[in-house]
Amino acid sequence: MAQRISRAKARLRATDEPFALPPPDVRPERLRSVLHVLYLLFNEGYATSSGPDLARTDLSGEAIRLARGVHEALPDDPEVAGLLALMLLTDARRPARTTIDGELVALAQQDRNLWDRRLITEGLALITRALPLGRVGEYQLQAAIAAVHGQAARYADTDWADILSLYGLLERMTGNPMVTLNRAVAAAMATGPGAGLAMLDGLEDRLGDHHRLHAVRAHLSEMAGNTRVAAEEFRAAAARTTNLREQRYLTTQAARLKRPASRPPATGHP
Length: 270
Fold this sequence. Notes:
By secondary structure, the chain is an all-alpha fold. It has a domain at 28-158. The protein has helices at 2-15, 27-46, 57-73, 78-91, 117-130, 138-151, 160-174, 177-191, 193-200, 204-207, 211-223, 227-240, 244-258, and strands at residues 50-51, 242-243. A two-stranded parallel ribbon has the order 1-2. It starts with a helix and ends in a 12-residue tail after the last helix.
């Protein structure tokens, strides 16, 4: 990391780029880059890609702090507000994502009394003000999806049809295969596992052999009653993730399906 920072400093010196706000004609592009970096920083903190812990609150907290600063500087930019809203609405669920021992808890099993209502209220206010401005972007759509989850008092109260519609808009806007994966979950919850599984067909060509694809296929296969395939997919997902907490969760789900009396499927994203 020290070497990367040194190379970055050298590159900046070589460009003679002034330490000042860029001219107005290039600010939108620069702002998109800043928001994307903050988005990646938050995601890595909320769901760490590798290591022994599920999350790194130092990273997600820093991303929120920086996003607040950008929002203070650009209070009328809807995508800035959308990104901050997304972070707050997502981070509000963090206290319920793990047990006291740090083990992963699926969305369906989370104690929503542990969700941070203050962050949810702030996030809802931000996205409510941003959407009517008429410049809807991907961060606003993701925040709107998080808002639907945040407004549901119970998992059973989730408006999956609304979430499915929002993911459809987001998929058309971005073409991101991870959005397609999440849309498949929403489709399964809204109309049945068959619809979601159908959306996964051929997704490997766009997403690769990703552990989340195997995990979603496992969940939806279990919903459809195919526990053999579900167990295989849970094991495949566990073998491909580099986060030890997530790996343990997926391995536990596979083992659970091998027992004679299985519990109801632990559907939903943590």
